[in-house]
Amino acid sequence: xxxxxxxxxxxxxxxxxxxxxxxxxxxxxxxxxxxxxxxxxxxxxxxxxxxxxxxxxxxxxxxxxxxxxxxxxxxxxxxxxxxxxxxxxxxxxxxxxxxxxxxxxxxxxxxxxxxxxxxxxxxxxxxxxxxxxxxxxxxxxxxxxxxxxxxxxxxxxxxxxxxxxxxxxxxxxxxxxxxxxxxxxxxxxxxxxxxxxxxxxxxxxxxxxxxxxxxxxxxxxxxxxxxxxxxxxxxxxxxxxxxxxxxxxxxxxxxxxxxxxxxxxxxxxxxxxxxxxxxxxxxxxxxxxxxxxxxxxxxxxxxxxxxxxxxxxxxxxxxxxxxxx
Length: 325
Description:
Layout: E1 4-11, H1 18-27, E2 34-40, E3 43-49, H2 58-72, E4 77-85, E5 91-95, H3 99-105, E6 116-121, H4 128-131, E7 143-144, E8 158-159, E9 162-163, H5 166-175, E10 186-191, H6 202-213, E11 218-221, H7 229-240, E12 244-248, E13 266-271, E14 289-292, E15 296-302, E16 305-311, H8 314-324
Parallel strand pairs: 6-10, 6-11, 7-10, 11-12, 12-13, 13-14
Antiparallel strand pairs: 1-3, 1-4, 2-3, 4-5, 8-9, 15-16
């Protein structure tokens, strides 16, 4: 990584179109910025780029975002980036604020060495952020409950016209070598779903049971659905073994999803770096803590190239908390 850059602003609120963004920028005194469609992972919205050659420090970018937010009547977030190399000659921009900001926001200290994190999700990919963990990437202890081939490797299937890679992204925030909250922690990937919206909790229960069996002391759950007696039983087992279970509260659904809603699971909501609640976070009695979940650096793939880009949601917040645990 080298030079810090500000790539612009974006708004993922579907109430804001290009015309609305132009008007908000003009009222905020940024009429020379260029507006264009924006896409980040599964999210869509409207983006705004500064004039060519403009250099905008991170603190100023956040102030500009707040100013435009007030004019737009919706949440506007800065895209803060650095140039990142994939280690194989590829080089490109990535939206990444200083990782230390996110770590400091939740009081994370140390590297996580000696801690084993179980991660039931879509599996992992050969992204350098994970593969460069070396022996600490414990895919040998992982499991595939989808294909039954033993390997938790995510085949990087397309969802529509884009590749999700949710397991890779969240794993990197928890324990990646560059952007991870606990880069020294062991990571046990468990491939058990293609979607984080679970209709049944059967595979998740089996995945948590496996994580307990292989000695994980933290289990990160960035997915959820309806309650289940089988899942409740396995969470009791985890508690008996002293396992800390961290779960995302949910995005854009209002109520807190299970398993985050249960009192013995650390349910995590999302806030921005200023401590303001992210508009899409679930809220309610099941939330135990809030952590940064807006524009969090994470491992992703862009047109087949490994890179680091921003991600937003309670999954990012939960991943940070799991790394700090």
